[in-house]
Amino acid sequence: MRRSSLAAALPVLVAVILTMTGCATPAPVETPAASSPAEPTPTIEPVVIGPAEMPPVAFGGDCANALTPEDIAEALGTTVVPRPRTLDESIANVGGLECEWRDANGNAVILAFIPRVGLDGAVFPEELAANFFDECTGGSYCAWQGGDDIAWVALTLVVPEGTTRGDVDGWGEALGQLAIENYSAAVDDPWTRDRTAWFPTLACEEVGDAIGAQLGVPIVGRASGWDADRPPTGYVMALGGSRQAHCYLTSDGGQGMSVTIWPGLGETLAAEGATNVDFGVPGVTAYEGGQDDYRGRDYILTDGVNRIDLWVRIDDTDAQRRFAVAVAAAAASGFE
């Protein structure tokens, strides 16, 4: 029987296919390109503000950059207009800003804003907190404080009858957060404060002891307290951030003096008519003011970084000077 021609050709065809398969060059396998490492986010080094230099004022000193009257009207439901305020040197010393608006009845809405970096860890004094942050009474001031790690913020306002603590907290949260967002969007360069040469936070008892050691007589120092039950919230926080000490000092004879210590304000000498005097204390420059109606005398002392405002209530001119020289010497030693 004859074989089929197809059957005869089949082994040859299979051999050809196998040969072609063995000789074919395999297609190259693509490997994914190695991913480039992500570029690190550049670190912005904060600008270092010198011990006696003033930090940048929040919002460039313009309250309209913090909140607008429209912002306040939307939150409170009342129309307000801005009222100019002079920036207190204590608030300027911590880079803060205090703004005020008034409604048609003359009621104030006050925003206090201080960057955390300016506060040096200060918190609102417990002895004053209840006057502001407890339950609200209609027709009087009520306040809210809050913020985050960027800034401390407070809102103070005269509240109408029927206003609750929850109402004020809600207004404060809304406007305070908006102010922080506006600040974060506008701030150019972060900053930090060099407090190397600042006096530490001093207790008035320490101040009295140091001055008494220079005079050779006991001097009792006590904190002067607040001038009002509700001092401005921004001012209160700024004094804490500035390590300010305001002391009343007395001797056994009842002679007294008032001493206010201002770290960081050693180059801010607002003393019109004051005369430079030489106390012979190295590193301390002294200025003497006139005698007031209470037969006291004003002095301003500075080491270039820290400032001391001194009022001596003594009749004797020589004794006034001795007290002032003792304060200068105590300051030169850091009140130690």
Secondary structure elements and pairings:
Elements: H1 5-23, E1 47-49, H2 69-76, E2 80-83, H3 89-92, E3 97-103, E4 108-115, H4 116-119, H5 126-133, E5 141-147, E6 151-158, H6 165-186, E7 191-193, H7 204-215, E8 219-223, H8 233-241, E9 245-251, E10 256-263, E11 275-277, E12 285-291, E13 297-302, E14 306-313, H9 317-332
Parallel strand pairs: 1-7
Antiparallel strand pairs: 2-3, 3-4, 4-6, 5-6, 8-9, 9-10, 10-14, 11-12, 12-13, 13-14
Helix pairs in contact: 7-9
Describe the structure.
The chain is of the alpha+beta class and 336 residues long. It has two domains: 47-193, no CATH class; 204-332, Protein Transport Mog1p, Chain A (3-Layer(aba) Sandwich), CATH 3.40.1000. It has nine helices and 14 strands. The strands form three sheets. A seven-stranded antiparallel beta sheet has the order 8-9-10-14-13-12-11, covered by helices on one side. It has a five-stranded antiparallel beta sheet with strand order 2-3-4-6-5, with helices on both faces. Strand 5 and strand 6 form a beta hairpin. Helix 7 (204-215) crosses helix 9. The longest helix has 22 residues, at 165-186. The protein starts with a helix and ends with a helix. Residues 1-26 have low confidence and may be disordered.
